[in-house]
Amino acid sequence: MLDFSSRFGRRVNRRLCQEKIIWLTTVDSHNTPQPRPVWFHWDGRTVLIFSEKNKAKLRHIARNPRVALNFNTDEEGGDVAVLLGDAVILDEPPASVRVKTYLRKYKAGIKSLGMTVAQFTEAYTVPVLVTPQTMRGFIE
Fold first, then answer.
1. CATH entry 2.30.110.10 includes domain 7-138
2. Using H for helix, E for strand and C for coil, what is the string for 7-37?
3. Which one, of 93, 113, 97, 81, lies nearest residue 6 by Cα?
4. Tens digit of pLDDT for each residue in 16-73?
């Protein structure tokens, strides 16, 4: 369980609640890290990400569920937060209230992709759930 009681922990939790982008790093079959920016929803315990079918990140997670999540730093290279954990590709959709919250968060982003919410949900059908186990970083 992550400790959000410290100054650093409170900052990470705020970012998990407020940020729009998090970097998901998986490991490919050659053990090469593969970072990619993703949209996400934090429920206080897990990070929900949606993927299109047949994407490399899904193959990576199926082979090795250990992943890293990190945020962009500030302009000076500070405000560093890295979370390490396990990812699971869900067989069932997440709770509808969580999906609605995710879609509400990214309504403008979905529109900027030239998609409707319905088109987005038809394309991004694979839910991935990441449970962070540890975190590290620093704030200035």
1. yes
2. HHHHHHHHHHHHCCCEEEEEECCCCCEEEEE
3. 81
4. 999 999 999 999 999 999 999 999 999 999 999 999 999 999 999 999 999 999 999 9
CB neighbourhood size of 138 (10 A): 10
- Where are the domains positioned within the chain? 7-138
**Rg, C-alpha atoms of the chain:** 15
Whether pTM > 0.85 for this model: the answer is yes
Beta-carbon contacts of 107 under 8 Å, excluding residues fewer than 6 positions away, are: 117
Hey, what are 4's tokens?
A: 């959000």
> Are 51 and 58 in contact, with CB atoms under 8 Å apart?
yes
Q: Could you write out the DSSP letters of every residue in the chain?
A: ----SSHHHHHHHHHHHH-S-EEEEEE-TTS-EEEEEE--EE-SS-EEEEE-TT-HHHHHHHH--EEEEEPPP-TTS--EEEEEEEEEE-SSPPPHHHHHHHHHHTHHHHHHTT--HHHHHHH--EEEEEEEEEEEEE--
